Amino acid sequence: MDSAELDRLLEKVKMVARKAGVLILEAHRKRALQSLSVESKGGVDLVTATDKASEMVIFNALREATPRYSFVGEEGTFMAGTEAPAEIGLGPTWVVDPLDGTTNFVHGLPMVCICIGLLYRRESVLGVIYNPILDELYEARKNGGAKLNGRPIHVGRAKDISEALIVNNIGSSRDPSFAEMTLSRLQYLMGRDVRGLRNLGSASVNMAWVASGVIDAYYEDGYGGPWDVAAGVIIVNEAGGCCCTPRGNGLEFRSLGKGKVLCGNQQIVEAISASIRAADAQLQAEMAGVLFRAGPLRFDILHFALASVAAMVAFWHFSPAY
């Protein structure tokens, strides 16, 4: 896939994103006058009629422009038919979130966007993130640099956690062990005198703002699916940044399930990843200490239970009634 082809596709995707953005902007302006049609996808994860309408606008336009490409949309649209693929293939694949930040959208917060990414051989090679409420369009294609509304952008230059504004999306999980891990990591960053912590509710907005240097880093353990980050990865990379998992491992676009991401400039990503690993190790040590301290108590309970059984056996054996 050469640069000329990527440039042609990028222009098409920008037009498609703006077209879908009209639907989102109109619904955003109308929400104060009429209620939105909101459904739950499970737990606190929401979907609206606007998500679905935006996805169909994007799907139809891309199917016409690239009929042989695969298409994976968050709301269940697939180019090759009605069945979801088991995993992302090696061929060109559009990966789309038609409205990232649905909970923000439902509540009227402007941190929402359309995300259209193109994967080729499971590598992100083109991405557009468009926030129609703020009219911010972020774009990048492989080896072409990253732009915001046509102007080149670059990631921030924070060298240390004490200089960094960091975003951590907590996501939709409400599992107690996940909450404990999340809070442990945030507490560790606070102990390193992090300049600021935020939770903005949109993976793609976070990555776009990392690419433009508005925030220094973003990490999440459990984003919704590849549609949340496929566009953002190429935009961050082309803006001079890097992307990996929170523990510093490489990203892989294969699964359609939840994933993990950390992005920023190389230096701050390494610092945050080291802090996350240290926080995880500290939490594991604390949990092991609790189990160790609980050991004698469990032994006492077991000893009491065995003694009780022995007493009952003795009573049965020697009782005159038997």
The number of helical runs is 7
Q: How many strand segments?
A: 14
* Helix and strand element order: HEEHEEHEEEEEEHEHEHEEH
> What do the pLDDT scores average to?
86
**Terminus-to-terminus distance:** 89 Å
Estimate the strand proportion.
Answer: 15-25%
| Widest β-sheet, arrangement of strands | 3-4-5-6-7-8-9
Oligomer, anyone? single chain
Broad structural category: alpha+beta
Low-confidence stretches: 78-82, 291-299, 301-307, 309-322
* Anisotropy-based shape: globular
Helix content, binned percent? 40-55%
The rounded Rg comes to 25 Å
Q: State the major sheet.
A: 7 strands, mixed
List keywords for this structure.
globular; disordered C terminus; 14 strands; 7-stranded mixed beta sheet; 322 residues; alpha+beta; 5-stranded mixed beta sheet
Model description:
The chain has 322 residues and is of the alpha+beta class. Helices cover 43% and strands 22% of the residues. Strands 3-4-5-6-7-8-9 form a 7-stranded mixed β-sheet, with helices on both faces. A 5-stranded mixed β-sheet has the order 11-10-12-14-13, with helices on both faces. A hairpin with a 2-residue loop joins strand 1 and strand 2. Helix 1 runs antiparallel to helix 2 and helix 4 packs across helix 7. The chain is globular, with a radius of gyration of 25 Å.
Map the helices and strands:
Elements: H1 3-30, E1 38-42, E2 45-48, H2 49-65, E3 70-73, E4 93-100, H3 102-107, E5 113-120, E6 123-131, E7 136-141, E8 146-148, E9 151-152, E10 165-168, H4 176-191, E11 196-198, H5 203-211, E12 217-223, H6 230-238, E13 242-244, E14 259-264, H7 266-318
Parallel strand pairs: 3-4, 10-11, 10-12
Antiparallel strand pairs: 1-2, 4-5, 5-6, 6-7, 7-8, 8-9, 12-14, 13-14
Helix pairs in contact: 1-2, 4-7, 5-6
